[in-house]
């Protein structure tokens, strides 16, 4: 069965993570995606190289696409783009805000050629405001948005980035794919395309949910005092750990959290996640621990609560050291306590659960051979998603795409010799 976006054509001008991920997710839904990158390759091709021009990160974010290298500073390349645009449904782009207009591939120019075009643009900071034209990457937005500070990883006196995932980039990739689908649906109703704007900063704030929520009558005074204090500390040249100590006082957590955390076991680490009193009571009973904080009217901010929480934490940590992770998982499962082992990413490639749900796919890459990677992130019963092909080698589809526009073999060869394509 065809995917939900079967027949949709996308011109992908994106680089690095957010934009390429968005276009790849749309390709999994059945869209035809033509990736335009400079003849020397987008930067991610050179990261973690496996073969010349074939980097691990690029391969992980560009499956299901066709490769069309173009030097967009050359008029012949722009002519090719303008020939493609009438047959395109979507353009995805993530250059700095000033670059598309300089290259002649901005929304105003392309939508004039094709008014039905959905044009999805990603920037770091958003289109407006004093920072709009600054270059920005995931680590910069992690720092600016508060994600980095909230993660509480401090080494050598400074906060460290969230390194397991480029969280601002990947969440923006998902948001872009969502926005494109919504705009295509709106076009079915109105016949008109539109511009969709995504920003790393916007999604970095959104994924923090309650942390980026100010309830006036509860938070205004405390937040104001906190901001005043840290600005004074910064002005005095205080080291970051001192500033962070003030932040921890502002974002104080209830003492003695034994219910939502990780534990060292006899052989590895287990995670528990109890987010309701019902589940917390189940866990306490399963561990044979009495938690007086379940009593009605108990004040969780009291000194008694703090002392009790500290002792309860010590008891729980000692208990978990007495069994293996597998034994604790079986015991807690039987008690109805949400839990699971802490694994390394590499262990999930062959894990029974990922395999059972088609979360791993194997594709054949034209340059590096067999590739296993994450599969489509959704399951759709009537319009199934599919990882149809591995990421394209540089220029793998140049002849195919240009021939579809009427270019002869001799013309294509001449364009290569002129450095327009590869």
Description:
- This protein has 422 residues and is of the alpha/beta class.
- It folds into three domains: 9-206 and 357-417, Crotonobetainyl-coa:carnitine coa-transferase, domain 1 (Rossmann fold, 3-Layer(aba) Sandwich); 215-250; 260-344, formyl-coa transferase, domain 3, CATH 3.30.1540.
- Helix content is 41%, strand content 16%.
- The strands form five sheets. The chain has a six-stranded parallel β-sheet.
- The mean pLDDT is 96.
List the helices and strands and how they pair.
Layout: E1 9-13, H1 18-28, E2 32-37, E3 49-51, E4 54-55, H2 56-61, E5 65-69, H3 75-84, E6 90-93, H4 99-103, H5 107-113, E7 118-123, H6 138-145, H7 147-151, E8 154-155, E9 158-159, H8 167-190, E10 194-199, H9 200-206, H10 216-235, H11 240-250, E11 260-264, E12 269-273, H12 277-287, H13 303-320, H14 325-334, E13 339-341, H15 352-356, E14 360-365, E15 369-374, H16 398-404, H17 409-417
Parallel strand pairs: 1-2, 1-6, 2-5, 6-7, 7-10
Antiparallel strand pairs: 3-4, 8-9, 11-12, 12-13, 14-15
Helix pairs in contact: 1-8, 6-9, 8-9, 10-11
The CATH superfamily of the largest domain is Crotonobetainyl-coa:carnitine coa-transferase, domain 1
Enumerate the strands of the largest sheet in spatial order, edge to edge or round the barrel. 5-2-1-6-7-10
CATH topology of the largest domain: Rossmann fold
Total helices: the number is: 17
What is the rounded distance between the termini? Answer: 34 Å
General shape: globular
Overall strand count: 15
